[in-house]
Design a protein that fits this description.
- One of its GO terms (cellular component) is nucleus.
- The chain contains 15 helices and twelve strands.
- It is mainly α and 494 residues long.
- It has a domain of 265 residues: SET domain (Beta-clip-like, Beta Complex).
- Strand 7 and strand 8 form a beta hairpin.
- Helix 1 packs across helix 2, helix 2 packs across helix 4 and helix 13 packs antiparallel against helix 14.
- The radius of gyration is 24 Å and the shape is globular.
Length: 494
């Protein structure tokens, strides 16, 4: 087993160019799955809505957490996590007691950053290629609404910040809040399925965007469960190569999900990160035709019909969001069926609006344990994804894993095992063999392979044994479709 340590900054060089500003390039050759560097958070906090459900040190979800006896706010897995957190929590603990309550996540993160700057200074810290002072804040690009939110956050921060600590100027506090606004990285739970917090990773902020990148970023919660402390690993992000990277090649990640047409991605990047994307996929509109595909054949639908169906799809997606928020999942299924009836004769298999409905339909049907029906929709979904996504995209790997489990639950063992194997191959590259989700997937792969062999040897016997097993044991309920699901985008927008 490889024990990943924090570091690897000797593998990269910082460069500056007029078009992009700063960036990182490789100083040695890398191959798919290689960890280029690993970095600990400069500061990180749990989301407001999950402070009592997630450990404030390792960001793992636990049913029973130990609460800080002084501020009653921070929660931890155990004494090990509580002890590790004290250096960062000490100032926060007394500030929360003085203030009477904990402020929102942005204020808490800004305070943690400034307490560290108060202690260490705002210059370069060990292992960092760039200081917090030199990160982009984009405050000058803020619109009226963002400026208004900034003023509210400034007031909240000044109320929370203890008077006996170093007093920072309004401009500097605004800089820190601006850095959080556009550079905060989303942290996930140990299964990589739910967004649970936000952190600042200075070195990661130097990696530029490309819609078809050569790297991916994965959050690893670390491991403190080993008996011997020498095998403990720290919470970190890992920058991983998606394929061969040559010496001198720029390292890139995607800040947004690829599953949007190039014009929409460009608008999103401009609005959220304040730059114009000039990557090859945006300039040439690569895969835009597939994402907006319509049915081919003798009776190709007219532009008016396509326009009507897409408008109907947009309106339905809004209604679905409302029904999901209220937990009315049978209504979601009804809306999806109505939409698919309109989409199927008109839209192509890779059309984004069709794929979005298929994704929701398969997810909700699986949650309702209607696996036989969900299996068909999930297969159509991943067939479309595989024509659009980078072959080693983490989102594709996760979609294949979910679809494979759905097929498996539906008794389609051959299709299920095939998808699980494809997902495992992708996650070995994007997450690595020691990540908890990859370990889960390996266990599924082994189990489904054993069942597939049984199926191939005696199909009748396999279904008899499966039926008997299901009668004695309830199928594990799929996780509830979560509003706080991990976003495909890399950075957490306020």
């Amino acid at each position: 087993q490889t024990i990943y340590r924090i570091g690897g900054m000797e593998n990269v060089d910082v460069f500056t160019c007029e078009a992009k500003g700063r960036g990182l390039k490789a100083v040695k050759e890398f191959w798919a799955g290689d960890v280029i560097f690993a970095e600990r958070a400069y500061a990180a906090v749990v989301f407001d809505s999950l402070t009592h459900l997630v450990c404030h040190t390792c960001f793992k979800r636990h049913e029973k957490l130990q609460r800080c006896g002084q501020c009653k706010f921070a929660h931890y897995c155990d004494r090990t996590c509580q002890k590790d957190a004290w250096a960062n929590h000490k100032n926060e603990c007394s500030a929360i007691k003085r203030h009477g309550k904990a402020p929102n996540e942005n204020i808490r993160l800004a305070a943690r950053i400034l307490w560290r700057i108060e202690k260490e200074g705002g210059g370069l810290t060990e292992g960092c290629l760039v200081s917090i002072d030199n990160l982009q804040n984009h405050v000058d690009h803020f619109g009226d609404e963002e400026k208004k939110e900034m003023r509210i956050d400034l007031e909240s921060f000044l109320e929370f910040w203890p008077p006996d600590n170093k007093q920072f100027g309004m401009t500097y506090i605004s800089h820190i809040l601006g850095v959080i606004n556009c550079n905060g990285f989303t942290l996930s739970d140990q299964r990589g399925l739910q967004a649970v917090g936000v952190g600042i990773f200075p070195n990661l902020c130097l990696v530029n965007h490309d819609c078809w990148p050569n790297c991916t970023v994965i959050f690893n919660n670390g491991n403190h469960q080993a008996v011997r402390s020498m095998f403990h690993t720290q919470m970190r992000i890992e920058l991983r190569a998606l394929g061969k990277i040559s010496v001198g090649e720029e390292l890139t990640v995607s800040y947004v999900d690829f599953l949007n047409v190039s014009e929409d991605r460009k608008q999103q990047l401009k609005k959220q990160y304040y730059f114009d994307c000039t990557c090859e996929h945006c300039q040439k509109g690569i895969k835009d035709d597939l994402m907006m595909a319509v049915k081919e054949g003798n009776e190709k639908p007219s532009k008016e019909v396509v326009k009507d169906v897409i408008q109907f799809s947009k309106e339905t997606l809004e209604k679905i969001d409302e029904a999901r928020t209220e937990g009315i999942y049978h209504q979601v299924v009804k809306l999806c069926r109505e939409c698919l009836d309109r989409q199927d004769p008109v839209l192509g298999d890779t059309n984004l609006y069709l794929l979005r409905i298929l994704s929701i339909m398969s997810e909700v049907l699986s949650y309702l344990q209607l696996f036989d029906e969900a299996a068909g929709y999930s297969k159509r979904m991943v067939d479309g994804y595989m024509k659009l996504y980078h072959p080693n995209n983490a989102q594709l790997g996760m979609a294949l894993m979910r679809a494979g489990v759905t097929q498996w639950h539906a008794g389609l063992i051959e299709a299920g095992h095939g998808m699980i194997c494809k997902a495992y191959a992708i996650l070995l590259v994007t997450h690595g063999s020691t990540h908890p989700i990859t370990k889960d997937l390996e266990a599924m792969r082994v189990q489904s392979e054993m069942e597939l062999r049984m199926f191939q040897e005696n199909e009748f016997m396999y279904y008899k044994m499966r039926e008997a097993a299901l009668q004695n044991q309830t199928i594990q309920v799929m996780p509830e479709p979560a509003a706080n699901e991990i976003s495909p985008g890399i950075f957490q927008k306020k």
